[in-house]
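ok so for the tutorial part 2 we go from a plain amino acid sequence to predicted structure tokens. step 1 is just haveing the sequence, like this:
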Amino acid sequence: RRSSDLGTGQFSVLGPPSEKMIDMTSQDIEGIISGPRRTAQELPWWACGGLRFGCLGCGRCCHGASGGIFMRPCEERCIAAALCLTAEQLRSRFETSRWRFPSLKETGCGRCVMNGDDGRCRVYACRPVECRTWPFWPELLESPQAWQAAARRCPGMDSGPLWSPRRIAVVLAAHEDYVKKLSREWGKEVR
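step 2 — the prediction. this is what the tokens look like for a chain of 191 residues:
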């Protein structure tokens, strides 16, 4: 979710309850959209018209190819509390350390352990930022081909409301900031 204060030009993307993922000014967002580029031809491919996305709650983003769903320490505590567990119990039952940072485990078929039998996330209200920023991940915004490949699995991509380039930039920046925070908070460098 995004909120903006029109008086100050401040934008924030909300993370876990009562924690802001990132605070940005309008100038920061413009810098993300255009970066050091100088012409419209060099803008990110999605910067001219935005992208359509509307989550259908199908849970397809919660299973498929193996990969880490990382958590910051604050997210780990929030998820543990939502499940009425201690952080230690969450780690032993639902986390793996096979990736660089603590990650939610997957079932044998590649489904996130928090994805219930009904296809819904058991911790949706406090899901990690990595989940909250789907599908606006750097690797999916890199090219139209990457976006389309993901859209073949996700019926909400290329449908639903139009996300403006500015809004996409906010979510993308939140995702990138999240990776930096993971590294800092777990004391490991990003590869």
